[in-house]
Design goal:
The chain contains 17 helices and 16 strands. With about 425 residues, it is of the alpha/beta class. The N and C termini lie far apart (about 45 Å).
């Protein structure tokens, strides 16, 4: 019996939307589910002790970062990532494949994994936070130095066998192959691991996207074989393949069909894209994947996107925005997003969101949290990050219930009629 399985409890007629239960060695995940991002085995500003209260069912960490520090051997010695970080719930680990893009094609250029990009710093990388991730998820490591960039050209070089890269921490040279990524993930010990993939630049043309996609398929096959050959790991960890193809619908569909023929335990939709491009074809892509296996949308988790993803058959989502926005005072509410540090909230004695059930909203006011940000108190980003995570986990809980109650369309329309979407 595989360590990962999905039971579909309810499907909506005329839609791919579904509610189910994803079973893992460390517990069940009720789907749809928002997965918290814990890149370095920590959700920034949030203690694992608070996960249950915040509705966090599952977390995703990053192989690249945990490999560099503290190292997979130390995590294994600690008893695996669950014991190491003190949380025994379901955990995923990304493969580190996004670093192929961020350290290679994306390094030193004013592009991100998205065609429609956020504001970038002079080195071409997102400049908003120490976690430093693009607006759709996977981490973009900060530059080590201009001298390093000049002496090495690119920080990562892709070839058929894998990727050679220099650490953004100290410039040391490293090598990832599909087999090495899987070996590291085996030692980290997450419930769900991902095949090694190449995430291309969204600016890459069709020819290169096709070349990279086909290479990703070969890497997927090698990743799958490396996992299945480790009998012990195969019994305690599930493996997902990642659909690639950039912004091109024909490549995405081809990728989904190819991966569907492989014996993965689930599938991730990843890579570089315009949000409109990928969300517009998710339904078509997911129809190529096995219905009985879980589907995860990597790096997309804004409320409006979650509704689209759920309708297209996505089971789980991850996104760094709740904590990244939280660290700069960006608050999610039923009326949309706002900056609590703005002057208008100085004397606002209402909760961050009067309709939110989190402990932050039960205890603190906008005026107080505004004061904390203005005086640069470390509690400020922690409180808003916790609120934002609960806002999204609660939203997805409500979406799940709306599917079970046959009122998904009604709930979506009512929510989006009020929620102000920002460009």
């Amino acid at each position: 019996m595989r360590p990962i399985s999905l039971t579909i409890e309810k499907e909506l007629p005329g839609s791919l939307a579904r509610a189910g239960v994803l079973r893992t060695p460390h517990g069940e995940v009720k789907t749809p589910c928002f997965v918290a991002v814990g890149t370095k085995a920590t959700v920034k500003g949030v203690s694992p002790a608070d996960f249950k209260e915040l509705g966090v069912q599952c977390m995703i960490a990053n192989t690249y970062h945990l490999y560099l520090s503290p190292g997979e051997n130390l995590v294994e010695k600690a008893g695996g990532i669950h014991e190491f970080m003190g949380w025994r719930g379901p955990i995923m680990t990304d493969s580190g494949g996004f670093q192929v893009f961020s350290l290679g094609e994306g390094y030193g250029k004013k592009i991100s994994k998205l065609s429609k990009r956020e504001s970038l710093g002079q080195n071409g990388l997102a400049e908003q936070s120490e976690e430093n991730r693009g607006p759709f998820g996977r981490e973009i490591p900060a530059a080590y130095s201009e001298e390093l960039a000049t002496s090495h050209g690119k920080l990562a070089i892709v070839d058929e066998d894998g990727v050679s890269f220099t650490s953004h921490v100290n410039g040391s040279l490293h090598r990832f192959t599909p087999e090495r990524s899987i070996e590291i993930q085996h030692k980290l010990g997450a419930d769900i691991i991902y095949a090694f993939d190449e995430c291309t630049s969204p600016a890459a043309d069709w020819d290169y996207q096709k070349e990279a996609m086909e290479r990703t398929h070969r890497w997927a096959d090698r990743s799958l074989k490396a996992h299945r050959q480790n009998i012990e790991a195969n019994e305690r960890q599930g493996i997902y393949g990642i659909v690639q193809g950039g912004r091109f619908a024909d490549l995405r569909i081809d990728s989904a069909k190819t991966l569907a023929d492989m014996d993965f335990d689930g599938y991730g939709i990843g890579g570089s894209f315009s949000k409109d491009d990928i969300l517009g074809i998710l339904d078509t892509v997911n129809r190529q994947l096995p219905k009985e296996k879980p589907r995860h949308l990597l790096g997309i988790g804004e409320p409006e996107d979650i509704f689209i993803g759920v309708a297209a058959g996505i089971d789980t989502f991850d996104c760094v925005l709740p904590t990244r926005n939280g660290r700069t005072g960006g608050v999610y509410s039923h009326d949309g997003k706002y900056l609590v540090e703005n002057a208008e909230y100085k004397e606002d004695f209402t909760p961050l969101d009067p309709e939110c059930d989190c402990l932050v909203c039960a205890q603190f006011t906008r005026a107080y949290i505004h004061h904390l940000f203005r005086t640069k108190e470390m509690l400020a980003p922690m409180l808003v990050s916790q609120h934002n995570i609960r806002f999204l986990t609660h939203l997805v809980e409500q979406i799940r219930q709306s599917i079970l109650d046959d009122r998904f369309d009604e709930f979506r329309d009512a929510f989006m009629a009020r929620y102000k979407v920002q460009d």
